[in-house]
Design brief:
The chain is mostly helical and 414 residues long. The chain contains 14 helices and 2 strands; from the N terminus they run αααββααααααααααα.
Length: 414
Amino acid sequence: ATIPDLVLDNKDTRCFENSFVAWNAAFATPTRALITLSTLGLLAMLYVHHNLRIRTKYLRSSTFAATDSVVPTVLHTSAKWQFLLETFICIGHAPPGINWSLVVTDIGNKELEYPIEILGMLWMSARVYLVLRWVRERTFFFNRSVTVEILTKLTGISLDFRFALKMLMDSMPYKILSYALLSLLLWSAYIARVCDRELEDTLHIYFWDSLWLQTITVATIGFGDVFPKTHCSRFASGVAMTGGVVLTALMVTLFSNQIQFTTLEYRLFNLVTQKNWKSKVEIAAAKCLQQFYRRKKRIADAGLPSTSTKAKSDFRLAADDPTVRQWHTVRMGYKRFVSRQPHLGDVVDDTSAVVKSIKGNVSAADKTLMNNSKRIEALEKQIGALHEDVKELSSLLRVIGRSLSSASGAPAKQ
């Protein structure tokens, strides 16, 4: 038995093209009609969205609330240019009943004919910004409150798509990166397929071939078995390559952050490492002592007096002794480890400085309280003197009233 050749010949290519043409002739008009209806609905929702934003902005304005003016529409405000730009982006599609093709000269001076379906699909790819807007609005809808709005005004932070993406990357980073990578692969593979489909010697006539092409492009491998053959598919592959580099950098950053020590883990790591270093130092010192007492015992067994030169030279541990070298190496390693850690003396000095500053603040507060108490006592004395003056005045007024009443013969209360 022989292995059949898996390469598509011209006959298989023509059969595929004929089946595609037959499907296009049968379902093109209903599909275009559905796309047109969905485009009209999208434009209506876009108009409502911009009007609601303007209405919310005007109703929250204090100057507008004081007047009886009417809320303008989006076409009568400065946001009309943004609305018109978004309308131009969203209106692009292939309407039913229009058959038009764009003939271009591509790589190798080959004339390629792109029908209106492919051009409309390329135009409709720009609607991806609506997905980004939905992500932003959905994120802030579940996190919006009066406190958040006040803090954004005080700090000057804008609740835009970048802030929403940071919130999503903090809560579910792996899911966001997976969705972005899958969407990039599917979009670029479909663009490359429809752009190169008109060629007779196309290398990715099926969608899986295009998907394989974009996979090796995103991974920056490029085996060379499948490659883009038109400017359009090259543009899609370039977008996939750029997005793959960005997503790969984000994934590497995310993984590196996951394997780093937290604050508590770093403290535990320091404690374990310090314990191991202490154990190594103790073992090296014990070996030095063991070697020292072995030499002492050997001198005693030899019967040499301890004051002799040979006994003194044998009794000392030389610097080139293996146990001494090992002990010096371990001790220096432990010193280097301790020098890299926050020293206890520095912590104590910082703590004492903080305590001194707190004591100074407390003493200043005590002085302020004493001065205030003295002022309160002085005010109380002045109030007491005023009370005495008021009493004297009232007694004087009584005397004047009695004298007036005795002079006129009628009571003079006023």
